[in-house]
């Protein structure tokens, strides 16, 4: 059905203006004034911002990890995302040595098919760049439109790749038009520190942070950057937490390297002291890289404002506190790593960023939607409000106040890491390709309505390298 959105203030990464939006056949077909409403459902957006739907580039739904599985799958996770203003996600498809890449991708299709209520794509993890993998990889990139590859430099016993695999992946990505995403921590050093801490009887959650120091993140970030530069490839550093990593990215960009960075809400809002909470409550805040000392938050906000970090991923990876997090009650290294943030990513960036003057309204849209769409081959189909783009639209009340709580969130997890936090600004209605998923804060979507997104190959021309400043602390 045709829809006409009227009386709202349209905000993109570059503009802010009042106009009407006409939607037909899943697309935005006209933007202007006094548009013809014949046969259209008229949506009054008075007093609201009209944002492009959020693009979350970093989620882990229905993912096996630490001998368990995340509690949000592609149904509950995407419903929560929609409530929060996100209309597209890119989830991580894990590969294993005993299966082909095609088989791994098919497994993830089966996880998402008939469940997702918003649109979705996949990144593909590479843990061993052997001849068979490198031969198959270009076929997957072309046939599946999976144009981003994930390398872990941490999790020594589960996912960690060596430098040879990382470099060969960069070379292949350069040739095939893919963006390489890297989890930057020195897994060998961390493995040594964890073993040492446990041998000394240190089992509490705080030791998750103390055995994964920021220097281990900074070192691995610098190493990934230099290997990327050697291959003349392109690098996206996921979940940046600290000055040691953020400054490495800023320095690389000042040199003209093709490097981009992502941070997450948890690193902007929480700090290492949360891991010290009594009665094992600190386990709720165990994810990797870990939370840092509070002063790093200013570094990350400054990096977002300066454009040296470009995106905000949720790193959604939810495990119930009662049950799964308890697996590590007597051994911090067995606490499943991850937290629930997919629903609040959009609102907290607006509330803590725009409302507190840390970033502009246009920067908010760029960070929460546009830059991820550009980097991951979805722009201008996603990430903006323009004629011809998908009608992924968020009607957002900038003055609505709410308190984040596990009692009211829609994630399938029994706690909120942001419990009790007051936020200003809330999505009221959310449309995906012109159809309501959330209407007046109620879910009206359809299970399985989300479409798989085949993405364009990495295109350097859609994103720019800024060269200042080089130090963010």
Write a structural description.
α3 packs parallel to α4 (163-176), α4 packs across α7 and α7 (214-231) packs parallel to α8 (243-254). The chain has helices at 76-83, 101-112, 131-144, 163-176, 187-199, 206-210, 214-231, 243-254, 265-269, 296-306, 345-354, 361-375; strands at residues 3-6, 9-11, 16-18, 20-24, 27-32, 41-44, 49-52, 54-59, 64-65, 68-69, 86-93, 119-125, 148-152, 179-183, 235-237, 259-263, 311-312, 393-403, 422-432, 435-439, 442-443. It is built from twelve helices and 21 strands. The protein has an eight-stranded parallel sheet. The chain has a seven-stranded mixed sheet with strand order 3-2-7-18-19-20-21. The protein has a four-stranded mixed sheet with strand order 5-4-1-6, with no helix packed on it. The protein has 473 residues and is α/β, with parallel strands linked by helices.
Entry summary:
The protein contains twelve helices and 21 strands. It is an alpha/beta fold and 473 residues long.
Q: What is the secondary structure topology, with strand pairs?
A:
Layout: E1 3-6, E2 9-11, E3 16-18, E4 20-24, E5 27-32, E6 41-44, E7 49-52, E8 54-59, E9 64-65, E10 68-69, H1 76-83, E11 86-93, H2 101-112, E12 119-125, H3 131-144, E13 148-152, H4 163-176, E14 179-183, H5 187-199, H6 206-210, H7 214-231, E15 235-237, H8 243-254, E16 259-263, H9 265-269, H10 296-306, E17 311-312, H11 345-354, H12 361-375, E18 393-403, E19 422-432, E20 435-439, E21 442-443
Parallel strand pairs: 1-6, 2-7, 8-11, 11-12, 12-13, 13-14, 14-15, 15-16, 16-17
Antiparallel strand pairs: 1-4, 2-3, 4-5, 7-18, 9-10, 18-19, 19-20, 20-21
Helix pairs in contact: 3-4, 4-7, 7-8
């Amino acid at each position: 059905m045709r829809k006409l959105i009227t009386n709202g203030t349209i905000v993109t990464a570059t503009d802010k203006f009042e106009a009407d939006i006409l939607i037909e056949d899943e697309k935005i077909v006209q933007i202007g004034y006094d548009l013809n409403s014949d046969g259209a459902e008229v949506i009054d957006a008075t007093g609201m911002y009209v944002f492009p739907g959020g693009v979350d580039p970093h989620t882990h739904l229905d993912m096996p990890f630490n001998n368990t599985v995340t509690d949000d799958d592609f149904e509950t996770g995407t419903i929560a995302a929609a409530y929060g203003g996100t209309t597209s996600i890119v989830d991580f498809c894990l590969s294993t040595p005993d299966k082909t890449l095609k088989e791994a991708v098919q497994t993830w299709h089966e996880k998402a098919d008939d469940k997702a209520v918003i649109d979705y794509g996949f990144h593909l993890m590479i843990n061993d760049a052997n001849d068979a993998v490198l031969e198959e990889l270009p076929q997957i990139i072309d046939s599946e439109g999976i144009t981003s590859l994930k390398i872990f430099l941490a999790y020594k016993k589960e996912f960690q790749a060596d430098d040879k695999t990382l470099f060969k992946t960069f070379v292949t990505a350069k040739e095939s038009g893919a963006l390489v995403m890297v989890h930057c921590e020195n897994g060998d050093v961390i493995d040594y520190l964890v073993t040492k801490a446990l041998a000394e009887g240190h089992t509490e959650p705080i030791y998750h942070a103390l055995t994964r120091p920021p220097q281990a993140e900074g070192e691995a970030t610098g190493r990934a950057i230099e290997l990327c530069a050697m291959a003349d490839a392109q690098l996206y550093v996921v979940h940046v937490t600290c000055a040691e990593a953020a400054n490495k990215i800023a320095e690389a960009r000042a040199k003209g390297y093709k490097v981009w960075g992502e941070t997450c809400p948890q690193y902007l809002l929480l700090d290492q002291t949360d891991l010290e909470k009594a009665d094992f409550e600190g386990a709720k805040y165990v994810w990797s890289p870990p939370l840092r000392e509070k002063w790093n938050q200013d570094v990350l906000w400054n990096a977002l404002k300066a454009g040296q970090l470009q995106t905000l991923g949720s790193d959604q990876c939810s495990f119930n506190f009662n049950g799964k997090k308890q697996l590590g009650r007597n051994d911090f290294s067995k606490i499943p790593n991850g937290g629930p943030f997919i629903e609040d990513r959009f609102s907290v960036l607006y509330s803590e960023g725009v409302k507190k003057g840390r970033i502009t309204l246009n920067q908010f849209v760029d960070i929460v939607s546009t830059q991820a769409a550009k980097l991951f081959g979805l722009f201008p189909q996603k990430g903006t409000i323009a004629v011809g783009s998908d009608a992924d639209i968020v009607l957002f009340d900038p003055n609505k106040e709410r308190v984040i709580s596990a009692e009211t969130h829609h994630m399938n997890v029994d706690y909120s890491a942001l419990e009790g936090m007051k936020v200003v600004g809330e999505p009221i209605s959310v449309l995906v390709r012109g159809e309501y998923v959330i209407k007046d804060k109620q879910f009206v979507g359809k299970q399985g309505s989300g479409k798989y997104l085949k993405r364009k190959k990495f295109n350097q021309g859609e994103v720019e390298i800024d060269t200042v400043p080089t130090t963010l602390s």
